[in-house]
Design goal:
The structure is a single chain. With 79 residues, the chain is mainly α. It is built from two helices and no strands.
Length: 79
């Protein structure tokens, strides 16, 4: 009876140790995944900033816009 209790306790300890190991590995993978997501987000932000800088379009001249809108009849031209 005592031997059966010792064997059962040993099995329970092994199962608990395996569960702790599985939890540790899962936590490490989650941390690594979050780190990769942060890196990907930072990279996407950097690429977006670079593209925004390269594609910078100056604001249109208001007088030109007014002339075009007047020519198509959307506003009264002030000539």
């Amino acid at each position: 009876m005592i031997i059966a209790a010792l064997v059962l306790a040993s099995v329970a300890l092994v199962v608990a140790a395996v569960a702790v190991r599985v939890a540790f590995v899962a936590n490490r993978r989650a941390v690594e995944s979050r780190a990769q997501a942060r890196q990907a987000r930072a990279h996407a932000d950097a690429v977006g900033d670079r593209l925004r800088d390269e594609i910078h379009r100056p604001e249109p001249d208001p007088s030109v816009v007014a002339k075009v809108l007047g020519a198509v009849g959307l506003i009264e031209s002030r000539r």
